[in-house]
Each structure stands twice: as structure tokens, then as C-alpha cells.
């Protein structure tokens, strides 16, 4: 079969790779000029460097993403900085690190040794995790994370120090809105799984280099299991092509007039809704489209600072204490100089990494409040926030440039009761993919990859069954 994939984000590219693995042709259409969607490389003229359109972390439990990278011939261990689950505040008032012990002792031991929490708070945190495990990672239906924590007698300090940053990092939705059951799914597959699965993965490269850049070559040149190149099955990655028209009938699909056997729509929800609304009305189309129109979105902001000299913080990912009254909205601080230091050590070359600019990334996972203020005022306030909390001053703390990226539709609000579309649409030759589909995960990169692979599997199986 010849299958069109609309959208070259992580979901669309994962679908295309899966289509090719199953012996079919995939042509990928992407409106942008760089693959990766909302997790891609961009050029910053202000910093004279390539940066990501948002700093991302992944969990070691993201098995589908890691498997996909290996299938493309990439080595995740070389491309990620791997760290045991560590929550450490930049002001050093709180720190928690899981122990190298079998689960669940890895987290429980880390909690008991954590700095910044009292013994009663630690025991309450352990008790809540234990009860959730005993309930097979099921919460009461309809609860938000905040309600689940209140029911679990979690005090203000443990919520602010541990649960709030963990929820925001995993769900991209604040605890007051986030679905407790989706949060439990993430906890199950990370801290509830093996010791290795609870780790954190931080990309050493830009997000397009991480694996999306490899897909074009894979589609065009990959061969069969014996390594023979099958040029007749070669697909393509068509960058700079925003699909305008989608049409389907009993014999195939047309994408901007080009004929295909089937298609996977792997765009954001507004674009997917626009394309699918062009199709003829079929049974169940109305509720499917209605579900797609009910998503609300949460913006995520990343402020990248270029510094005169590397700050050399003790950990690559550190918690920041927010103060919205002072416009100090920063939640996470990422220090890229750590990767450069490791590269120099690994290569025994003192010049390696020195040519790269020293960059710090501050992530504001829910940027709605930030966006009500002038950007320059927020940038100045966040700069002061990280300098003060990292206890740096003078020349060592000097900042010489910045770049702000606000992804307005970075993620959907993962609220309780949200109905998410399945990968198979009401139209027999059309599937959909994206982190917003019914993946069982919040709007994270692993959900996007899983949805793409599953959409390809289901679509091809459905078409093959229809042909019998």
C-alpha cells in the first residue's frame, strides 16, 4: 500500500517508520521546514545557535521512543544524559534522589533520605504511593491530582516540593486541573516499574537530531530484513508542504490531488479537525469531530539564556521556586554546560564543547499567567530568579543574551473526563495520530510515538482485513 502521513511531528514520523517496517510506502507531508513538530530544532539569531523550540525531558520508561530510535540505528545511551529520578532545588533547600535499589525501594528509600521534608511528610508520601500500588494504580474516577493528594493527606510543603513539580513535568497540566488517573499511569510506568524505568533522560542533542532527522533517509533507502534496498517501496519526506485538501472514497484517498490507498492525519487537533471536516459525512463522524473540538490547550514557555561563562551547576535539571507576584515564573532550570564538561572528559580534548555557547534553559510549563505580562519584564524577573536561587552574582552570573519561545498549543489540558479520539477514525481509510489521541498517557512525547505506531498498525491491519 501507498500511505500518506500528514504531519512530521513525533507521531507522524513514528507512523511513517512503522508503515515502512511493515513493507509499505509512506509519503510524509509537513508544513514546516524542519521535522519534529513541537519538539524540533530552531535557529536563534539572538543567540547565534541552534536551540530546541522547548526543553524536553523523557522518562526511561518511554519504551516505544527508545525502541524506535534503535530501529533507526541510533544509540539512546549516547544521545541521552541518563539520571536517576532526582528533584533538587536550585536554592539547595530540597533534594530527593531515588536509590539504586529494586523498585519500589528505590523511590521509598530516596524519600526517606530526602532533604527538606519532615519525617511525617515523608511517611505520608510513602503511604500514598504504597496505597496506589496496592490499588493497581487506579484512582477514584473523576479526581484531579490536587483532589487525590488532598484525599491522601499530603500537606502543603510536600505538595509544593515533590508532587507539584512531578505533576507539571509529567502532565504539562497543573495539579488543580490534571487528571489523577492519567498521572497514576505515568507513575505506574516510571516509579512503579523497574529501577531503570524510573530514570530521567535529557537529550544531549537538539530534538531534530535526536531521531527525526534520520527518518527521511530511512523512508528513502531502507531495505528488507536481509538488508536489500527496495527502491520500489521508497517513500519521502515532503517539507514545506501544508496539506490543504483531503478526500476519501471507497477506493482510496486523495491528499492535495495525489492518490493514496490510505492516510494518517498526524497534525495538531485544530488542523486535524479542519482536514477531517472536509470528508463526507459517515456514521459516528459527528461525535468524533465534536470530541476533537473540545480540547483546551496550555502554553509552555522556554527562556534560553546565553551566559558569559558556564555556571557549572551541580545538576543538569534543577527546581525553581516560583513567585508570580514578582513575575518569577521559572519552574525548571537546565544547565547545558554539564554536557559540554562530560564531552570534554569523555574525549580527553580540552577544546571539545568550548565553541558551543554556554546556554541555560528555564521552562515555564504553564505559561498562561506569564503571557498576561510584558515579555521583557518576565525575562528580567526570571533572570534575577535564577541568579538568586543558584546563589550566583557578579561576572560569573552575567547573562549576555536570551531567546523566548512560547508554544501556545504545546499541550492539551489533561483534565478528568476528557474524551480523546481513537486512532481509527469513522472513515475506513483514514487514521489519526498525535499525543492527543487515546493513548492512556498525557500529552507527552512517548504518547505521540505510541499513537503513531499504533495508528499505522491498526490502519494497515484494517485495510488488509477489508481486502480479504
Major sheet description: 5 strands, parallel
Number of helices: 15
- Whole-number mean pLDDT: 90
User: Largest sheet, order of strands side by side?
Assistant: 10-2-1-14-20
Measured as a percent range, the helix fraction is 25-40%
**Structural Rg:** 23 Å
Regions with pLDDT < 50 over 5+ consecutive residues?
A: 223-229, 343-354
The general outline is globular
Give an account of the 3D structure.
Strand 11 and strand 12 form a beta hairpin. The two termini are about 15 Å apart. About 5% of the residues have low confidence. Helix 1 packs parallel to helix 15. The strands form 6 sheets. The chain has a 5-stranded parallel β-sheet with strand order 10-2-1-14-20, with helices on one face. The protein has a 5-stranded antiparallel β-sheet with strand order 16-17-18-15-19. The longest helix has 23 residues. With about 475 residues, it is α+β, with helices and mostly antiparallel strands. The chain is built from 15 helices and 20 strands. It is about 35% helix and about 20% strand. The chain is globular, with a radius of gyration of 23 Å.
Write the layout of secondary structure elements.
Layout (H helix, E strand, L loop, with lengths): L1 E5 L3 H12 L3 E6 L10 E4 L4 E4 L5 E2 L3 H9 L4 H4 E4 L2 E3 L6 E3 L7 H8 L6 H16 L10 H7 L4 H16 L8 H10 L10 E4 L3 H4 L4 H7 L14 E4 L6 E4 L2 E4 L2 E3 L1 E4 L3 H8 L8 H8 L4 E11 L9 E3 L12 E4 L1 H11 L11 E6 L10 H15 L9 E14 L17 E3 L12 H23 L1
Parallel strand pairs: 1-2, 1-14, 2-10, 14-20
Antiparallel strand pairs: 3-4, 5-9, 6-9, 7-8, 11-12, 12-13, 15-18, 15-19, 16-17, 17-18
Helix pairs in contact: 1-15, 2-15
Amino acid at each position: 500500500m501507498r500511505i500518506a502521513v500528514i504531519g512530521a511531528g513525533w507521531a507522524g514520523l513514528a507512523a511513517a517508520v512503522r508503515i515502512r517496517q511493515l513493507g509499505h510506502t509512506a509519503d510524509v507531508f509537513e508544513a514546516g521546514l524542519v521535522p519534529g513538530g513541537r519538539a524540533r530544532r530552531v535557529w536563534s539569531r539572538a543567540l547565534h545557535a541552534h536551540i530546541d523550540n522547548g526543553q524536553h525531558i523523557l522518562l526511561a520508561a518511554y519504551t516505544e521512543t527508545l525502541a524506535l530510535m534503535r530501529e533507526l540505528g541510533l544509540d539512546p545511551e549516547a544521545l541521552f544524559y541518563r539520571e536517576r529520578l532526582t528533584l533538587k532545588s536550585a536554592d539547595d533547600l530540597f533534594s530527593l534522589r531515588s536509590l539504586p535499589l529494586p523498585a519500589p525501594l528505590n523511590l521509598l528509600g530516596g524519600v526517606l533520605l530526602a532533604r527538606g521534608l519532615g519525617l511525617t511528610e515523608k511517611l505520608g508520601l510513602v503511604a500514598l504511593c504504597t496505597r496506589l500500588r496496592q490499588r493497581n494504580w487506579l484512582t477514584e474516577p473523576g479526581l484531579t491530582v490536587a483532589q487525590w493528594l488532598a484525599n491522601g493527606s499530603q500537606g502543603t510543603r510536600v505538595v509544593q516540593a515533590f508532587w507539584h513539580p512531578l505533576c507539571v513535568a509529567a502532565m504539562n497540566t497543573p495539579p488543580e486541573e490534571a487528571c489523577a488517573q492519567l498521572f497514576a499511569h505515568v507513575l505506574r510506568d516510571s516509579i512503579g516499574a523497574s529501577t531503570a524505568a524510573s530514570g530521567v533522560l535529557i537529550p544531549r542533542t537538539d530534538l531534530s537530531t535526536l531521531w527525526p532527522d534520520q527518518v527521511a533517509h530511512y523512508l528513502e533507502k531502507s531495505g528488507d530484513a536481509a538488508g536489500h534496498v527496495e527502491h520500489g517501496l521508497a517513500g519521502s519526506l515532503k517539507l514545506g508542504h501544508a496539506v490543504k485538501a483531503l478526500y476519501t472514497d471507497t477506493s482510496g484517498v486523495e491528499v492535495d490531488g495525489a492518490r493514496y490507498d490510505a492516510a494518517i492525519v498526524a497534525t495538531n487537533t485544530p488542523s486535524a479537525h479542519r482536514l477531517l471536516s472536509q470528508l463526507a459525512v459517515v456514521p459516528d463522524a459527528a461525535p468524533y469531530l465534536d470530541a476533537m473540538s473540545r480540547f483546551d490547550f496550555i502554553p509552555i514557555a522556554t527562556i534560553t539564556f546565553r551566559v558569559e561563562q558556564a555556571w557549572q551547576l551541580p545538576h543538569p535539571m534543577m527546581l525553581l521556586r516560583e513567585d508570580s507576584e514578582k513575575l518569577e515564573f521559572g519552574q525548571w532550570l537546565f544547565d547545558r554546560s554539564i554536557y559540554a564538561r562530560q564531552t570534554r572528559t569523555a574525549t580527553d580534548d580540552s577544546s571539545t564543547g568550548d565553541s558551543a555557547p554556554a546556554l541555560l534553559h528555564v521552562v515555564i510549563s504553564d505559561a498562561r499567567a506569564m503571557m498576561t505580562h510584558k515579555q521583557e519584564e518576565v525575562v528580567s524577573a526570571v533572570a534575577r530568579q535564577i541568579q538568586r536561587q543558584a546563589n550566583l552574582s557578579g561576572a560569573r552570573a552575567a547573562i549576555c543574551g536570551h531567546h523566548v519561545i512560547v508554544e501556545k498549543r504545546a499541550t492539551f489540558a489533561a483534565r478528568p473526563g476528557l474524551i480523546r479520539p481513537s486512532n481509527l477514525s469513522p472513515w475506513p481509510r483514514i487514521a489519526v495520530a498525535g499525543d492527543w489521541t487515546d493513548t492512556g498517557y498525557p500529552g507527552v512525547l512517548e504518547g505521540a510515538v505510541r499513537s503513531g505506531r499504533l495508528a499505522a498498525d491498526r490502519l494497515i491491519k484494517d485495510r488488509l482485513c477489508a481486502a480479504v
